[in-house]
Amino acid sequence: SNSVVFKLINATGNATVVAGEFGIPGGPPSQFNYPYGVYADSGTFYVSDSQDDMVFKFFSNSTNGTNGTVVAGSLGDSTILGAPAGIYVVSSSGNLYVADNGNSSVVRWSPGADPSTGRVFIANDTLTAILDVIVTANEQTLFVTDANSVKKFTVGVNTATIFAGNATAGSGPYQFNGAAGLALDSTEQYLYVVDSGNNRVQRFYIPSC
């Protein structure tokens, strides 16, 4: 809500603004209007701007007020990208996957693709409220948070499978009260899920699910 992205240095704990202008909401190229998702890659990082309907790319040496490059979406055009939330970039290909929350779908941009016309639709089967997305390194499997469940797709096939949760809010094992974030471990055997309403993180063993 302060319209910025901070970088935290582990050694000192100090926070530095690396994108946006503190307390000043706005639009491209240097301001955000409620930034939501962040993904850091080697030498760059990406930020989804949920109210301006875009994803920006910055270099890692960015500072307060630095201009970013729009890599997905168009200012205020929710038909291209609406209220983007979680984002994920596959290191080997540079493909950018976006949880298009406003349109209840997952979309993808390839490196260099036109932000306004380069969108590739990936999935929307039974999705309603999606806040995060993550993809395996080989880009074959996609996981998406969907309210009180996590759904799994084979990339290229728009058929959802419930991977975790039962779509009903709860605090029991394998239940979520608002699945909000995802992470894979380096071996891609475990999926971690931020269970926001229950104030916890759950871990799932992928081969057994």
The pLDDT mean sits at 95
The percent range for helix content is under 10%
For the biggest β-sheet, the strand order reads 3-4-5-6
* Tally of helical runs: 0
Order of secondary-structure elements: EEEEEEEEEEEEEEEEE
- Principal-axes geometry comes out as globular
Largest sheet: 4 strands, antiparallel
Number of E-type strands: 17
Q: Give the low-pLDDT segments.
A: none
**Strand residue content:** 35-45%
Assembly status: single chain
The separation of the N and C termini measures: 36 Å
Radius of gyration: 17 Å
The chain-level structural class is mainly beta
GO molecular function, one term: zinc ion binding
InterPro entries: 6-blade_b-propeller_TolB-like, NHL_repeat, TRIM-NHL_E3_ligases
Organism: Didymodactylos carnosus
Keywords: Repeat
